[in-house]
Amino acid sequence: MPNKTPAIISAVITFVLLIIISVILSFGQLVLLNGFSGRLASIALNASFICQGVGNILAVIIAWRLTIRLITKSNWNNIVAALVSTLVGTLTGAGLSFIAIIASILFAEQIR
Known about the structure:
3 helices; elongated; 112 residues
């Protein structure tokens, strides 16, 4: 399994980048939830954290599987395959995190 190491590296880097992106987006969400009561804001934050966690796990799996796919099926270089899959996984996870934040704010607005 020579393609297992690049897949692990790609998944770990994607996970670390997504944690950083999720923290930054969560601080922005706190600013957006400034006018809500504490109960509504905590419900929206919890919903957002759950959705972001699921999205981050899916993005890491995408990065892991894409690295293996690019190396075995497309005969890409290990480094290039890891970089491309990390980029794809990070963009996917960041997009899902952004959607989760928007959905949680709309959810808080609906239960207001």
